[in-house]
Amino acid sequence: MTPASPLAVVILVVAPDRPGLVADTTVYVREAGGNIEEAEQHTMHGGTFVQRIRATFPPGREPAAIERDIAALTAGRVHVHRAGERTRAALFVSRQGHAAYDVMSRVALGSLPLDVTCIVSDHPIHADLARRFEVPFIEVPVAGRDREAHEAEVLAALAPHRVELVILARYMRILTAGFLDRLGCPAINVHHSLLPAFIGAGAYERAWARGVKLIGATAHYATVDLDEGPIIAQAATQASHRDGPDDLARRGRELESAVLAEALAAHCEHRVVLDGNRTIIFEG
């Protein structure tokens, strides 16, 4: 008979700061027979204590029980996740496919702990991407549908896939509050850093004409406030007079892909803690 495996978990704590919190949580793990493999904590400006612990417990322990115990101990919000579990995700993409292709390549290479269960698009052009990685392709065209009908069809198509995360890999539809509420899981978006100065099509051409000296990308949780959700990852690079519009666009696409991957890794490895509209990102 194969012996039961230890329970490996990631514990996230958000609580009012007080003396002894670190000792209380670590002593709890020890007295429960657990072993701490990683631990990091920080007290935010304003007195909020945040902590991330990766630990193993003897077989038979349940994440829900650990969550209840530590929540009672700290008087805070506690989430306990099984370590190493892959996140079921839906990948949304419009015409620009660079970020979507990058995500799927990283998943195939094992560098992102994701299972992409479907690719959703408002255009048919990325059906080949889905075939290449043997993932169902869901096309929901915009033509002939109002926003409410389009979103209802997308939600109906997603339902069988039981997704835990939606990845907006340059998906250019504005999502309504009703859609985000009914989605039932977080959504992570990525965009270039030229907003709000250069909104809409041709942003890099207009940025080049203005002589911008810095371009970048931002990945964040999607909210009803367009491109204003809690930021998970950002990156920037210098631009020079040698860069034409095509150079800026190419470098921008590279930044978007890298920043989205960084944000997805942080989310799926349970390294993100939300504090209002701000995030605390623990190191990987």
Keywords:
284 residues, alpha/beta, Alpha-Beta Plaits, Rossmann fold, 2 domains, seven-stranded mixed beta sheet, four-stranded antiparallel beta sheet, 13 strands, 32% helix
Beta content comes to 25-35%
Task: Extract low-pLDDT stretches.
Answer: none
Structural domain tally: 2
Rounded to an integer, what's the Rg over CA atoms?
21 Å
Largest sheet: 7 strands, mixed
- The counted number of beta strands is 13
Instruction: Give me the CATH fold name of the largest domain.
Output: Rossmann fold
CATH H-tier superfamily of the largest domain: Formyl transferase, N-terminal domain
CATH class of the largest domain: Alpha Beta
- What structural class should be given to the helix and strand makeup? alpha/beta
Distance between the termini: 36 Å
Helix residue percentage: 25-40%
What order do the strands of the largest sheet run in, or round the barrel if closed?
A: 7-6-5-8-9-10-11
The coarse overall form would be: globular
Count of individual helical segments? 8
Average pLDDT over all residues: 92
CATH architecture of the largest domain: 3-Layer(aba) Sandwich
Q: SSE order, as H and E? A: EHEEHEEHEHEHEHEHEEHEE
Overall description:
With 284 residues, the protein is of the alpha/beta class. The protein is 32% helix and 31% strand. It folds into two domains: 76 residues, 2-Layer Sandwich (Alpha-Beta Plaits), CATH 3.30.70; 195 residues, Rossmann fold (3-Layer(aba) Sandwich), CATH 3.40.50.170. It has a seven-stranded mixed sheet with strand order 7-6-5-8-9-10-11, sandwiched between helices. Strand 6, helix 4 and strand 7 form a beta-alpha-beta unit. The longest helix has 24 residues. It is globular and about 60 Å long.
